[in-house]
Write the structure tokens for this entry.
Amino acid sequence: MREAPPPAPLLCLTTSYPRAPHDAAGSFVAHLNARFAEAGWAPRVVCLGPSAAPLARCPLYGFPLRAARAFGGLSGAGGAPDWLQRHPAAALAAAPLSALSLARALAAERAPPAGGAAGGAAGARVAHWLLPCALLPARGPAAHVSYAHGGDVALLETLPGGRALARLIDGRAARAGGALCFVSDDLRARFEGLLGAPLQAQGAVLPMGVDAPRPCARYEEALRARAGGRLVIATVGRLTPLKGLDVLAEALAALPAEARAGVLWLAAGEGPERARLEGLIARHALPAQLLGHLAPPQRDALLRVAAVLAQPSRRVGARVEGSPVALMEAAAAGCAVVCTRAGGAPALAAQLAPAGGAWVVEEGDPRALRDALRAALHAAHEGGGGGGGASARALRAEVAAVGARWLWSALGPAHAALLASALSASR
């Protein structure tokens, strides 16, 4: 009987990676590595962290990891894009130093260990966030697939010389036979806008996936008791200006009193906007509760209980959400969504629209958001046909059927096929 071939080595270079089992920072990179492992690769990770770590095991899935020190707040809980926006002057020093630190860790990963054996050999390479990962020197394999997630494209749009850097990234990928993968059509269009021409490199649009829902039954029961028969509007994500939750607060404040009495806004997440949101909730006497950070099973329970997920994101400077993971998680749970025409959300919503599970409004418009929420809540309660009960369950089933296309079980093979295609083109 022929033995199975050993896993092919894969080097993953990223600026963000989870440091605890439920750490959201870069968790989708870890999940993607798990899908690559299922496809026969053996991932090793080089990433930025609060301090350098010569070699360790990733807390999620246990892949070998080498951490480089990030300077400033680039590895903080708030995420690099938020810190860069709040501290542009400090970023002028911190970002280049962090990129240099990451390059040194990459060089160490490629160097032979004591004893002379080839260490860290990688048959292929993936890079997450175009800046700086797609530009770092490649010892051994080139970055066969470089992923753009949103903050990197926004950075290129704002940096002096960003257009030249975009052309350098594209040209380098084209010469190596590699691919550039964007998590939304919006990001690809914006990157090509920087180029002023179509991509030279192989291009692809594939969102990061989500896990199948595994709700915590006890937490779901507690949330239903808390709702007390009211229809739940859920939000999931960091409490930052990008999420537009202040607009949601204004939309709920504009509801008639009798409609407001029948809903409850439950917000999962933490962030710098918490105090402001608490003030808006108190000022308008809104039926709302801030739940703080939730573990994935608790988040899935919230989405199971919710009648609708609100995703009122907006553009903040050049930044806008790439492909909102919360929207895909909600759809996988069968939860209808109301989102704004910002970033990659409308493209996802367009796939849910035929099932009657999505409403899209202009960003920053509380009254349009209010009206869409009322329509979505009615459809979620009545199933869109006035029947209630079974009709509402049928609507959730239709939404979940569409959401299944964003599960890792469906998207993982597509990412693996893209890597195989790029690797073949580079030979």
